[in-house]
Amino acid sequence: MVRRSSWSQCGRAAGAGGPVLGHHFRGGVVTPVMTVSSLQPRTLVGMGLSRRMLVLLDVLVGVLSLINLLSVLSATAPTRWTTPAGVAGSLLTAGCWLSWRLRPRHLWLQLLVVAAALAALGGGGAVPLLLTLLAICLVVADAGLGQGVVGLLFFAAVGAVAMYLWGRDWESILLESVAAAVLGGLGLVLGQLLRELESERRTNLRLVTELRARHDVEKELMLADERSRSARELHDGLGHRLTLIGMSLEYAERVRESAPEQAFAEVGRARQQASEALAYMRRWVRALNPPRETDLSGIAAFEAIADSFRGTGLTVRIRQTGSECPLGREASLFAYRLVQEGLTNVLRHSGADEVEITVHWQQEGIRIELEDNGAESGAPELSGAEPGFGLRSLAERAEQLGGGFSARVAERGVRLSGVVPAGAGR
User: Fold this and answer.
1) CATH number at residue 327
2) In a designed cystine with 115, which of 16, 93, 310, 379 is the match (CB 3.0 to 4.6 A)?
3) Would I find Kinase among this entry's keywords (predicted)?
4) How many CA atoms lie within 13 Å of 205's alpha carbon, on the beta-carbon side?
5) Neighbours of 42 (CB within 10 A)
6) Each residue's pLDDT tens digit, 74-85
7) What is the DSSP secondary structure assignment for residue 46, as one 8-state letter?
8) Which of residues 354 and 177 earns the better pLDDT score?
9) Could you read off the pLDDT of 370-401 as tens digits, one per residue?
10) What is the domain range of residue 415?
């Protein structure tokens, strides 16, 4: 039993941080498969923070913790509880960060806020505030705005209690608490910004994954349609000839004694049909198995392709205008594919026996035109249906390279034309 999955299910799986489902086309059935193993968990390690950025954060937290520790130990008038609190807070800050880096969990970042608030009790000046700002920012980005607000309120409460124990007046406590809240609010804003950027990144990643999956399905369906169309054409062409051969031989067998001359004539017609069937099969074998790329380039490569098709009875003439110039890798590959696909389409669809290839070497690039003497009805791509996979791929590739591609009916038959910049792919 084949299970089907919708695109909405694919989106829900990606949005939940789970594996993303794509689809493959096998045997006429679309089946779900994994297109990516899974999205990373929604923690800062799984966000868009690069390894270099995480290393910088490691250094920043370590340096700030060390500075705060040294400030507490070198205090001129420490109390009996400020030094232990500052030392413990500095060590716990470094420990919570290291624990989070080894095993990313929301709890470690929440404890980091507590440790930074404890470090502030040691009177380390602005360093504990910077640690708290960083901790709140990371909590919001990792666990959400609500967790960040809780951390900020906890830090403000601890700071107010600490200042009260230090003997500050209420006015100073209020002013410094407001300043700490403003600084913590900055951490909330930065953390929320990181979280929204991460959400947008994950949404874009999911959309790209879905588009790639759609493209893969569309590609499979188009290839399946081309295989089906090729099978019908092969059956109609070769099957018809084989049927005529069988009928001729059967008739010759019936009249071989009563009308030997007619029997020999039917055998001759059967031999002619067999020759045509063999030539037809050779054309299809060449069309279904085009020549592979060679180390040749330019006109020499085009001549090599033409030679491989001339053995099918197809007359291929190549001419050029302008002086041959070196092409970039992508431009050269496009030109090679254009000639190859054009000749393949002639064999498979147009019924032509002559093809003329014109290569225009221009200063800004190369333009190639293929024109056959087949009938328009023999080119399904031009009869109003969707273009075949080969021609569509050429058009997309030409656009990507900054060029163009067209297929239209000409005076003699069908004309393919493609142009790309010479430097594409260098």
Assistant:
1) 3.30.565.10
2) 93
3) yes
4) 23
5) 17
6) 766 556 667 787
7) G
8) 354
9) 998 876 544 544 544 455 667 888 888 888 88
10) 291-421
Render pLDDT for 305-341 as a digit per residue (tens, 0 to 9). 888 787 777 888 999 998 888 888 888 888 888 888 8
Is the CA virtual torsion 345, 348, 351, 352 positive or negative?
positive
Q: Is 359 left (phi over 0), alpha (psi -120 to 50) or beta?
A: beta
CA distances to 13, 40, 119, 305 from 48, rounded to whole Å, are 19, 10, 30, 47
Q: 286, 303, 318: which is the final residue of a domain?
A: 286
- Contact between residue 339 and residue 381 where contact means Cβ atoms under 8 Å apart: no
Asked if the structure places residue 381 within a domain, the reply is: yes
Which range is least confidently modeled, 43-57, 151-165, 241-255, 311-325? 43-57
pTM of the model: 0.45
Measure the CA–CA gap between 353 and 339, rounded to whole angstroms.
Answer: 16
The two three-digit tokens of residue 284, written as one number: 């299809």
| Residue in this structure with the two tokens 């953390």, named with its chain if needed | 191
Residue reference for tokens 């000046």:
125
Q: Which residues of 271-282 are buried (b: 16+ CB within 10 A; e: fewer)?
A: eebbeebeebee
Q: Is 29 helix (H, G, I), strand (E, B) or coil?
A: strand
Helix (H, G, I), strand (E, B) or coil at 32: strand
Please tell me the distance from the alpha carbon of residue 402 to that of residue 422, in angstroms, as a whole number.
10
User: Alpha-carbon distance 68 to 130, whole Å?
Assistant: 10
3-state class (DSSP) for residue 410: coil
In the listed set 184, 210, 236, which residue is the last one of a domain according to the structure? 210
CA–CA distance, 242 with 216 (Å, rounded to integer): 38
Are 413 and 333 within one domain? yes
Contacts of 425 (CB under 8 A, 6+ apart): 328, 329, 330, 331, 332, 333, 401
State both tokens at 29: 């059935």
Distance CA 110, CA 302 (A): 67
CB atoms within 10 A of CB 58: 14
